[in-house]
Amino acid sequence: MTRAQLVANIFAKRSYLCVGLDTDSTKLPDHLREQPNAIFQFNKAIIDATKDHCVAYKINTAFYEAAGVKGWEAMEQTADYIPATHFKIADAKRGDIGNTASQYAKAFFETMQFDALTVAPYMGADSVRPFLEYTDKWTILLGLTSNKGAEDFELQKISRSAGGHTGATVAAVEEEFLYERVIKKGLDWGTDKNLMFVIGATQQDAIFRIRSIAPNHFFLVPGVGAQGGSLKEISQSALLPDGGLLVNASRSVIYAGEGEDFAVEAAAIAHQYAYEMDLYL
Amino acid sequence: MTRAQLVANIFAKRSYLCVGLDTDSTKLPDHLREQPNAIFQFNKAIIDATKDHCVAYKINTAFYEAAGVKGWEAMEQTADYIPATHFKIADAKRGDIGNTASQYAKAFFETMQFDALTVAPYMGADSVRPFLEYTDKWTILLGLTSNKGAEDFELQKISRSAGGHTGATVAAVEEEFLYERVIKKGLDWGTDKNLMFVIGATQQDAIFRIRSIAPNHFFLVPGVGAQGGSLKEISQSALLPDGGLLVNASRSVIYAGEGEDFAVEAAAIAHQYAYEMDLYL
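ok -> structure tokens follow
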């Protein structure tokens, strides 16, 4: 899906909601749990109920892998079932050396037909570029994530004058956060038509700064809902004239209800997010 | 597998070789390619032929995911087939927020019975700890990887006096590489009985420094063979009295031959590595 198509969908729906299919086989409603292929049945009902309120779905691969081969089958079925009108994200956070990254790209962009894949930056350029070679697909690079652990490395300061220090101390140097360096490197590697960044909604203090570094790129924003980030704040800080945001909600939507009407309750929450997004657009 | 068991295997075999099963369905020998379940048939032959020369197998998940559900099945079958005497590594480089990391841990430590999983550090403590909660399993954290992209972030210097700088410049500060910070944090999170580090064999200049930071931990060392690292140098720099190294070779072993005798040729290369390792132990 091109940026123009994604933007058209956002303005047609007046929503930039991404529904996260973090489908945990142990949390399915009782009436589904014993059914064959329960994970896919659950996802199908969620997709049918929420598709008018969102523009994207994000499959969190971990939940499917935990169920083994059956889970991987359910992931493939779900990816197939997501309508072509919706942006299809595999949240897999893959990252490895070039020949291995090429295999991950094949898995998610060819064997399965995702529009986008989340990618971890630690291993650098040659671990990211194989994904960007698919020019009709999107790479979504981890920038500043929503979790507390972001403090351990992402929010550490690195020197801007890189590579030249051999001693243990240096004179005064300009510094930037690791996540800023990652975003800046990403800007060199991809374009605003094939690269997005993951920016956690809980990182409100940094949003303006991040938007100034990447003024034209889409951000995929987790952390609204169960993790406590504010939809209003992230929207007011980072929306672009053409949208520029996909805000993800997983648990708060898909587990809104526990009974037979779980999909109706999921739709109600998705509708509520979309209603609020309409105000900000 | 405990450290004591792994060490006993290393000294019984006089080998610290890990054979990497990066099995690419497009590179199988002609006579296997048309067979049902060709990936597993290939792996089975490689395992049968090499098991006397190695103490570990490493499954690179990307190559299996690229083949979809059939690939995932072949991965599960292969993991089941690896003898219990051999340390079983899933090279998956997973990393995500806590509730998602727990699902990855379930996938590789419960649904499949791997001994160890490679984990990416970017997202910090809460993305790594769920793996370490399995006290009878191993987390193998990326430290300094073998690829050129290691320069982009891993080999960037970060300030040691972290968190206190709000301005753009600071006075003289002590610095360390990001990968060093990752290893030191790892030492806080796990022990030398449930945590290893990935250290690329191509990073020879840094090996002494890394060994001094983590004097008791096992390193999983890729980069020998196709990537050009030296077995001799890494062994002389980083072996411990109880071993302390698992040196991986993937392509150089499993693609040693292309014909019907591919497994025999793989065994010859594995034997050659083990012969050399015997000298260093």
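Chain B touches chain A through 73 residues (CB under 8 Å).
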